[in-house]
Amino acid sequence: MKCTSCGSDNTQRLQVIYEGGTQTLDAQSAYGNVRATTQSTLARKATPPKKRHWTILAIVCLISLRLAVAFGNQREIPGITLFLLGSVLHAAGWRSPGSDLT
Is residue 12 part of a domain? Predict the structure, then answer.
């Protein structure tokens, strides 16, 4: 595999970097089983993105739609919908593009 920018043969897939720099350690202590994961800085940067769970988002949208239909055309429904949607997205780990809070 060659780098598309410089043509170098010294390249690695992100999956190989991630797996090579990630170790899971299992140990037993007086308190029970302990599992720890250590990562190199490069492996942390090569971590694959988290999968998004669309089920929760779909349920919130359906509940919001049902509320809108049940209460008619009231002014509070868009605010409630946005609040619920924002809460679920935050709980699911969604971040706006460009926000690096890690």
Answer: yes
pLDDT of 94 over the 70 cut: no
Q: Which tokens hold the place of 96?
A: 């706006």
Claim to verify: residue 61 and residue 36 sit in the same structural domain? no
- Taking residues 65-91, report their average pLDDT: 71
Q: Please state the domain count of the chain.
A: 2
pLDDT digits (tens, 9 = 90+) for 3-58: 888 888 888 888 888 888 889 888 888 888 888 888 899 888 888 887 766 777 77
Q: Which residue has tokens 């302990």?
A: 34
Q: Find the angle CA(9)-CA(11)-CA(16) to the nearest 5 degrees.
A: 145
Tokens (6 digits) for 16: 């190989």
DSSP structure string for 37-100:
EEE-HHHHHTPPPPPP-HHHHHHHHHHHHHHHHHH-S-THHHHHHHHHHHHHHHHTT---TT--
